[in-house]
Amino acid sequence: MNTILQIINESEKILLIEYNSGEYESAVDLRHDILRKPLGLVFTPQQLSEEKHNYHLAYYNDNILIAYLMLVPENDGRIKMKQVAVANTWQGKGVGSKLVLAAETFSKAKGFTVLYCHARDKAVPFYEKLNYNRVGDMFREVTIPHYQMDKELT
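Request: output the structure for the sequence above.
Response:
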């Protein structure tokens, strides 16, 4: 069963969706279209099966999925944010920021003290606006430059 995490307004809401649900399958499609397809990559069944115990946050407008992110718990008080994807027509409209802020609130409520991600180089300014700090040097992941971005959850 999906859980409402936040109601933005009468048409927009953020849900915690279940792994392997229809909503999750729609999120996999969105992630593929936004994050993988442009790089010529696909998800393997193994990669998707490893997502079973993660948290899946989905942003809906009029019951249509427009953004998604995944949270991967770690055992040192840290939680990793991955696969942040916003539908092309919704990019630049604040949807990603609202979803990340909801992820921060959710993570803090679960007892995590640091939320971090591996941000594509072009996404670094987005995370900096949300008070994430760049940690370390550039590295390559899925064939493109990334930076680790951390935020203390206070």
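Helices lie at 22-36, 45-49, 95-109, 124-129.
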